[in-house]
Amino acid sequence: MSITHEDIALVLSAALHNDQLDEALDALKGLRPVDIADALELVAPEQAWRLLERLPGRAEIYAYFDADEQVRLAREFPRATLARLVGEMPADERTDLFKRLDPKQQNELLPALAQAEREDIRRLSSYEEGTAGALMTSDYAMLKPGMTVAQALASLRHEAPDAETIYQSYVIDDERRLLGVVSLRDLILAHPDKTIDQLMIADVVSGEVGEDQEDIAKRITRYDLLALPITDQMGCLVGIVTYDDAMDVASEEATDDFHKSAGVTTSVGNLKDATIGLLYRKRVFWLVLLVFGNLFSGAGIAHFEDIIAANLVLVFFLPLLVDSGGNAGSQSSTLMVRAMATGEVVMKDWFKLLGREATVALLLGCTMAAAVSLLGYIRGDSLVALVLALSMVSIVMVGCVIGMSLPFVLSKFNLDPASASAPLITSVCDASGVVVYLYIASQILPGMSMG
Amino acid sequence: MSITHEDIALVLSAALHNDQLDEALDALKGLRPVDIADALELVAPEQAWRLLERLPGRAEIYAYFDADEQVRLAREFPRATLARLVGEMPADERTDLFKRLDPKQQNELLPALAQAEREDIRRLSSYEEGTAGALMTSDYAMLKPGMTVAQALASLRHEAPDAETIYQSYVIDDERRLLGVVSLRDLILAHPDKTIDQLMIADVVSGEVGEDQEDIAKRITRYDLLALPITDQMGCLVGIVTYDDAMDVASEEATDDFHKSAGVTTSVGNLKDATIGLLYRKRVFWLVLLVFGNLFSGAGIAHFEDIIAANLVLVFFLPLLVDSGGNAGSQSSTLMVRAMATGEVVMKDWFKLLGREATVALLLGCTMAAAVSLLGYIRGDSLVALVLALSMVSIVMVGCVIGMSLPFVLSKFNLDPASASAPLITSVCDASGVVVYLYIASQILPGMSMG
Lengths: 451, 451
Fold this sequence. Notes:
2 copies of one chain form a homodimer. With 451 residues, the first copy, chain A, is mainly alpha-helical. In chain A, 65% of the residues lie in helices and 6% in strands.
């Protein structure tokens, strides 16, 4: 299974350099479309194009190219060839490509397409990004309720080359209202004379065009579906979302949440291809916000300047105590954000979870307090050890409760809970940690002598 | 689509309390197996069991229960009933359940099962957790190369009730060696007299029993497969992994990596059901390690005690500078860990990415330096502002380079890159940040006067 696309690309480049097109095509023989796409992405666009032109199933190969690479290649194609290729692509991939072309390319391409394809692109591209409508394809298999099983199978044989899946067929009436679903498995098991309305499952799990793609993906996973039919507000079938697209959405959303957890504002796409400017823009927000968040910690420190001057040993432990709250809080928020994203935990669980989190935080805080007071005793004295222990327990508890609550609060205000990122938690815990630590110190330690 | 399982569970409990079993069963009519399972999980085990006994498709419903709930219910079942239920479950779910029972329950159950089921459980449970073998099912459809299409369809009609999918059939010889794969789509399109060896795709994408389940899931996603055949070392077919199991693996692995990113050592499973003890154990490791990591920061601070005493203003900015390195480093490592997990980035990209990361870090550092030096000038003077600016740039760059490199280093030593968690990065950046900051301060600021 260890295909190295680099090796293949080297062979391709050498063959193409010597104009040995057949040899290059030979090197790609037996490879699967996604592997061919990966190899072709490594050669120059105009050479990739020369090969693609001659490969069987080129629309499928082309559909596997990276989005950016598709657009780059599209510039190389003569207009008629591009139109033919685009015509052969699955409806959802075709629409995605079309939306990425610049207006000039779009205007050149449209007249070269068949009428049906043009309308399909217009319709599919009208849905907002991130909704079921933008994810779905219009290449699905339809049946009528009055058909016999034999007629249905004949109809599927006819539709098979175009439909994304014929394993699930959707039963619609004359107004395209979704009546039911029937699987190919049930069709081949049924008596040929039975009618579709006898065989179909009428209570279909479906989605609406305007729904969030994340909810669509979750429904497909929950019910282990091959495809989810999508209807408009009138209940008419307008497309399907297939399981493989749902897998891609789930993976994208996980990456998104992952990035947000570290304070990267939105997904940067494929990290390898991300530009310096993009990475900078996506990362700078929280980092700079944190700097200004420090105004509060700084004010706290300024307020307790005397106690610090009198007990410089406090400074040794300042980074540790401040970090501990942030670390414990990040753990809490990460557990919560992920549980909310997978749907394990919902709003009304908050109160129950808060009680448990407080207990866990108390235990974690006590353990860390034991460790830090040992260090404090070695470097300071028993009073310093006491200050550290009390501060650690309080700071960890505050951090955990903030970390656990913030995702719920954000969600309450219809914000993405994943924005409760490590840097945000750190900023909030910093300020509270400094104040708690120095306040406790000021109550226990002498103010003016050196302890 | 908004089924509230709580409402259904309330209706169920009320009906069961009055011994109105038919009414309870009515409430579940029309619901899908996974929804019934969710509702039944909310009523008492012995009541859930009374209903389950009377429901059609109960093995499928039971398979959707949480793992813990399955085991809890299994204790309620009379042995013969449990055996019948287990016999009806898909092979992979059955094995998972069996492995979770305690030895006494296992020994009671085994004799009550049919011979074939017993052997299937023994064989499937012999594979190590986390491998393809532990994930696969033995319920797949097989064909012989000499069969005609008509014979193959007849055979599939016969196998359909047991196989997890008949949309992909696997062609094997008499020694069970995997020869090819044929889709139901191709079968129903082909002439009935054609033979399977003419129709099958001989170059099958497959996996080996010992492979990591994550690699299996990635392959299924990459090639958009419905199922991946799994072979032993001899190339003999021993099972298949279906796309829905691959989706579950991908989601689990993402959760795992997510938790690790916050220093939660391994997955805690379903957060809602996690006990206090489990949460404590999984979270305490990195938090306590961080406390001891502070020995280094503390030593750094102790070394520069004089410069701090002479310039107390330095303390105001200590938490900020230390956090900034950790935050920027966490961003780098999170981006990298996720890119490595999805396979976007591999080892040999390291050098190229390092150069880009250093540039991004320089830009981020300069922006943050501008912000912090403004604060430094307001609270201190221009020398303090200079110290802060230089420190910030250095600390952010060190943090980013550490954050980016650590996942690669861990992977080089065959450790999980996801262990490069925020707390670890924080610990490392703490110590280096303190030293960098105070060293720069000691070079620029006067040692004994108050600046």
